[in-house]
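can u do me a favor
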């Protein structure tokens, strides 16, 4: 007995030492990442303002005398924060950079269109956000009267329409992964640079090469400039290596090409600074994730044995497969426009129904309706923490996910914390995510649970979403954009949730924390809509 106790104490001391070392290393990584990200705006004046109801941010070098204005616009489900790499890069090289939130996006509470198919109304709403941002930038002290536009994805069409409606007012345009409507006459656009991620679908690349061919200045080749910037007829297309639709915003190649294009247009030379925040963001998030493990050891243990359904592979497969197949089929023809948020209301239904079917499958397994009788389980042996310990652990886990990681994302990546106008949407989304994560966590945890089952159910959920998109492509197409984001959330919060579960022994702690994080992220990411 003495040897057993001594070995146990040695293991505890070893774990404590490891936790302390990891906590210190993670804290260092967080400090370095934050310091480098904040250093990017050194020497800049960053001013946040409102033009009517449009939130706008101005970036300009300190002591600037005179410079062109560059207005930078984000894409669908993005925000002005997402465009910081372009804004900081250009401002550090002597430009006045302006970012803003389109209606329904970021902090802009004005409603976006309820149907993306309504092109005319969508364009009208988006132009109503672009034009005040341009006016503010052009009225800024030191603006020399010259204007360039930079836009990502959805914004490309909006910027092109503005330039087309105001001939001669825009000296240069840089469109990142745009899709331009047929109403855009590309020949009328001055000094057009197109940048796509090399990993994006070929249909986007094809439109870019078609635009080059229409210029009539020679063969449409990637990386070859057609025409001369001096006469406003220059055209160029770049495929940024190794990046896709969102990664193109962080691409060194894309940032360098944007800066060089505007410098050629305006005859300027800056310091050549590029906001390459990707590695520092990676270091920061690595620190935040690693820090979660030693912090999880501080949580109270709620049960002397791990709680959960404890389904082996044979019993897990039907429980996991049924919701993946049935959810998109059931929701295929049902209306999903009950929330003032585009696409997100369908996602709320998908979460809720998926979780309900999973819970039904668990009940069937427990009742023995499925082949075989339910596996006998020992009663739980909770410790003295009771509900107080459960509430404490749940609040701590939720706070870490929404504040430590959420605040970082909101500051350096994209808007992720909700304003007052989105609280109701968060609550509605939470109903769906809470049903899903509660059922899923219980199904994949417990003694004897299938190893790898937790990852399997997340993969099936993503495949289920893709099936839903395939059944209703016109309405749900933009869900494809967030599938990679959901995958990252599943990986990060699944890892953290596993640490929490192994410490507290209760699956509902991680389930509630993940449900809150997902509800906030989806409610804030998708645009608010009107009638």
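np, heres the sequence
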């Amino acid at each position: 007995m003495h040897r057993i106790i001594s070995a146990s104490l040695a293991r505890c001391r070893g774990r404590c030492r490891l936790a302390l070392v990891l906590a210190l290393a993670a804290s260092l990584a967080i400090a370095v990442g934050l310091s480098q990200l904040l250093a990017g705006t050194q020497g800049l004046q960053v001013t946040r303002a409102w033009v009517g109801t449009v939130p706008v941010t101005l970036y300009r070098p300190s002591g600037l005398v005179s410079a062109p204005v560059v207005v930078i616009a984000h894409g669908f489900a993005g925000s002005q924060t997402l465009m910081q790499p372009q804004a900081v890069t250009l401002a550090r090289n002597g430009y006045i950079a302006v970012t803003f939130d389109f209606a329904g996006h970021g902090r802009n509470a004005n409603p976006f269109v309820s149907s993306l198919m309504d092109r005319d109304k969508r364009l009208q709403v988006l132009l109503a956000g672009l034009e005040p941002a341009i006016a503010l930038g052009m009225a800024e002290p030191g603006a020399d009267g010259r204007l360039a536009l930079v836009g990502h994805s959805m914004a490309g069409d909006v910027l092109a329409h503005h330039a087309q409606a105001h001939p001669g007012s825009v000296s240069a345009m840089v469109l990142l992964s745009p899709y331009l409507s047929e109403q855009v006459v590309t020949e009328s656009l001055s000094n057009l640079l197109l940048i796509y991620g090399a990993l994006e679908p070929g249909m986007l690349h094809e439109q870019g090469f078609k635009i080059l061919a229409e210029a009539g200045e020679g063969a449409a080749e990637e990386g070859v400039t057609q025409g001369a910037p001096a006469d406003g007829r220059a055209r160029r297309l770049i495929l940024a290596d190794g990046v896709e639709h969102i990664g193109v915003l962080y691409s060194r190649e894309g940032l360098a090409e944007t800066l060089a294009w505007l410098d050629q247009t305006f005859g300027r030379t800056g310091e050549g600074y590029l906001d390459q925040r990707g590695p520092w963001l990676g270091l920061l998030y690595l620190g935040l994730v690693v820090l979660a493990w030693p912090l999880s050891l501080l949580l109270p243990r709620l049960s002397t044995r791990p709680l959960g359904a404890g389904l082996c592979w044979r019993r897990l497969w039907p429980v996991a497969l049924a919701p993946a197949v049935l959810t998109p089929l059931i929701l295929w023809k049902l209306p999903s426009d009950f929330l003032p948020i585009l696409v997100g209301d369908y996602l709320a239904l998908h979460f809720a129904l998926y979780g309900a079917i999973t819970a039904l499958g668990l009940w069937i397994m427990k009742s023995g309706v499925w082949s075989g009788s339910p596996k006998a389980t020992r009663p739980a042996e909770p410790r003295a923490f009771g509900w107080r310990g459960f509430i404490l652990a749940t609040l701590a886990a939720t706070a870490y996910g929404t504040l430590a990681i959420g605040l970082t994302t909101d500051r350096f990546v994209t808007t992720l914390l909700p304003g007052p106008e989105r609280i109701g949407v968060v609550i509605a989304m939470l109903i769906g995510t809470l049903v899903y994560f509660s059922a899923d966590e219980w199904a994949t945890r417990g003694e004897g649970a299938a190893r790898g089952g937790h990852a399997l159910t997340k993969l099936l959920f993503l495949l289920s979403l893709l099936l839903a998109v395939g059944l209703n492509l016109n309405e749900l197409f933009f869900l494809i954009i967030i599938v990679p984001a959901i995958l990252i959330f599943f990986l990060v919060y699944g890892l953290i949730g596993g640490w929490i579960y192994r410490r507290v022994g209760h699956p509902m702690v991680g389930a509630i924390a993940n449900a809150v994080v997902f509800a906030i992220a989806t409610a804030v990411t998708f645009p608010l809509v009107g009638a």
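Residues 371-384 have pLDDT under 50 and may be disordered. hope that helps!!
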